[in-house]
Write a structure and sequence with these properties.
This protein is α+β, with helices and mostly antiparallel strands. It has one domain: Jelly Rolls. It has five helices and ten strands, in the order H-H-E-E-E-H-H-E-E-H-E-E-E-E-E.
Length: about 220
């Protein structure tokens, strides 16, 4: 066989080998939105408009009754009324993003309570996280009967960290006539503070840190 024919045969073999390699290649998908944002597999992922947000806010609590404070902090949309508090009125970042997106999740929550009543008065503060809608607490047992609980004495801080996404299977809705059938809250915290002060006297500083995801851009 001449050198010219050998060269042509070698080129044909090379082309066949390359075609076989191309046919045998396996497409490897990139990381899913769920894995990128650290969500459990059971959560449905919306379109590619997911926006992460780290929010932090603080607010003062005052006695709602003589000798104490009894409130519920709901992590979601709603109108603050009496002893029921909502993120809309406490966190400007949440209010802005919930007005622009139709869905949200709270991935991570850190709640901290500093009781500001004088040491000489004694007393205590206790707070929790519950995945179900909470009633305004009336006793310590109402608050303590939860997985995530903090306790604090005067001039001391108490805190806990939890992942609310562990307790749900779907996103929360930010709109009243939302695309989702669930309500617009992702759990709540009951807060009970005992002291010797009169009604309306400041008794605690609450600090909340939230790692959140928003999706479904609507503006």
């Amino acid at each position: 066989m001449s050198t010219k024919m050998k060269s042509k045969t070698a080129r044909r073999r090379t082309r066949r080998a390359n075609n076989n390699n191309n046919n045998n290649r396996i497409a490897v998908a990139g990381p899913s939105l769920g894995s990128r944002f650290g969500l459990p597999m059971r959560y449905p992922m919306p379109a590619n408009d997911v926006v992460p947000a780290n929010l932090k806010f603080s607010f003062d609590l005052a006695n709602t009754i003589a000798g104490g404070c009894l409130v519920v902090l709901a992590y979601g949309v709603g109108e603050t009324s009496g002893s029921r508090l909502f993120l809309d009125d406490l966190c400007s970042g949440f209010k802005a993003l919930s007005g622009a997106y139709s869905r949200f999740l709270v991935k991570r929550l850190k709640l901290e309570v500093l009781q500001t009543t004088p040491l000489t008065q004694g007393g205590y503060a206790i707070a929790n996280f519950e995945a179900v809608p909470s009633l305004v607490p009336t006793s310590v047992s109402d608050v303590a009967n939860a997985v995530h609980v903090l306790e604090a004495t005067p001039s001391q801080r108490g805190s806990f960290v939890c992942n609310p996404t562990d307790y749900y299977n779907d996103w929360r809705s930010t709109v009243g006539d939302g695309e989702l059938t669930n309500d617009g809250r992702m759990g709540s915290s009951q807060i009970l503070i005992n002291n010797q002060s009169a009604v309306a006297v400041s008794c605690a500083l609450v600090t909340c840190e939230l790692e959140m995801l928003f999706a479904g851009y609507r503006q």
